[in-house]
Amino acid sequence: MSREQTLFDITCRALTGLNQVIAEARPDIVLVHGDTTSTFVGALAAYYHRIPVGHVEAGLRTGDKYSPYPEEMNRKLTGALTDLHFAPTAMARGNLLAEAVPADNIFITGNTVIDTLLKTVRSDYRFPAELDTVMGDLSGRRVILVTTHRRENLGEPLRHVYQALRDIIHEFHDTVAVFPVHRNPQVRSVVQSELGGLDRIHLIEPLEYEPFANLMGRSDIILTDSGGIQEEAPSLGKPVLVLRDTTERPEAIAAGTAKLIGTSRDRVYEELRLLLTDSTAYSVMAEAGNPYGDGRASKRIVEFLLHHFKLTEQMPAPFTIQA
């Protein structure tokens, strides 16, 4: 990592570095995960070495190459280089079939993020000591967990979101916001100008996965422009308000666990206020089922690879949503 790095910097450094790693390891297959720039570059590096690619979390699409940016094209370009597509859901599989990917090359697994989440969140979890002050302030209060980082939301869109959050915290005295602030200077500058120094809004450093996942479990509402959180939060019974106009995870919208609300100050305020004042609206989102996995996606991928490389005769059953 380097300060103010660009997509050009990341792409070039990752491609050069992975060239050396793959040349030394000579793997039988390279697995890439998700939709980051390193995902696409990992697939490209493997292709240059004529090594097969397996894409974990394959088939997510919005249909807009600039939303999210650059993730939508990262996953499409990765898909073009992929040999085995590990789709988390039936809808993701459908997206791949629509792009003429052979059905035999697609396997529905559920999402590995649910595997990790279910092994991480614990009722007896003890948060790191540096969060003692924050956790003490949450006692007996409702908690809004906030994360923002999308490039398309930088600038005024984020400012409008933070203004709405400030209005909500001012109005609801039993409510606290916890905001692990992304290290991007363009995010931090707006956060500080709109939310810095305010009571009951805790601006903290980004968290490692374990404390963050357990903080999700302690929260009541999640306000985010993240992709992965749209999958994680439903497993914990947490409504997700998505600060975007499109999502590559429409299953969450269809299931009612997440809602696309954009970044308008009025809309963000209205949707937060609804969940804080209408117990029925809250319950509808919190109690909807999770369409993203059952905690066994990784096991399915391993079993599929063993079968693919003829190390076992047993083909695993794909993930299906239980009624």
The span between the termini is 44 Å
Instruction: Give the overall form.
Output: globular
Strand order of the largest sheet: 7-6-5-8-9-10
CATH domain topology of the largest domain? Rossmann fold
Radius of gyration: 20 Å
Number of domains: 2
| Number of strand segments | 10
Instruction: Kindly state the percentage of residues in helix.
Output: 40-55%
CATH architecture assignment of the largest domain: 3-Layer(aba) Sandwich
What would the average pLDDT be, to the nearest integer?
94
- The secondary structure category is alpha/beta
| Percent range for β-strand residues | 5-15%
The CATH class of the largest domain, by name, is: Alpha Beta
Q: Unreliable stretches, pLDDT < 50, 5 or more residues?
A: none
Secondary-structure element sequence?
A: HEHEHEHEHHEHEHEHEHEHEHHH
Biggest sheet character: 6 strands, parallel
Count of alpha and pi helical runs: 14
Let me know the CATH homologous superfamily of the largest domain.
Glycogen Phosphorylase B
